[in-house]
Amino acid sequence: xxxxxxxxxxxxxxxxxxxxxxxxxxxxxxxxxxxxxxxxxxxxxxxxxxxxxxxxxxxxxxxxxxxxxxxxxxxxxxxxxxxxxxxxxxxxxxxxxxxxxxxxxxxxxxxxx
Length: 113
Known about the structure:
With 113 residues, the chain is mainly alpha-helical. It has helices at residues 16-80, 82-93. Helix 1 packs across helix 2 (82-93). The longest helix has 65 residues, at 16-80. The chain is rod-shaped. The mean pLDDT is 86.
């Protein structure tokens, strides 16, 4: 049995029906791609919003970690250094040594203007 060779020269020219058939195929292909994009676009936007939320949380976590480290260092100094205890007590009670002056900065109330 002889096999027929499928060359480009042996294709049948369908004229305007062939062009219409190719155009319909391309439109169908583009429509399917458009449908897929339309289905995934809300998910992409939601993913982007979640990434921004995670970035905000990581920034907040870094800030809170730094604050916790500062607090831990201050507690450690209050436990070990008597001068730190004295300094903290004087700051909180607004007391001064005999050779020091206390200056209080008061912010004006915005309602009084």
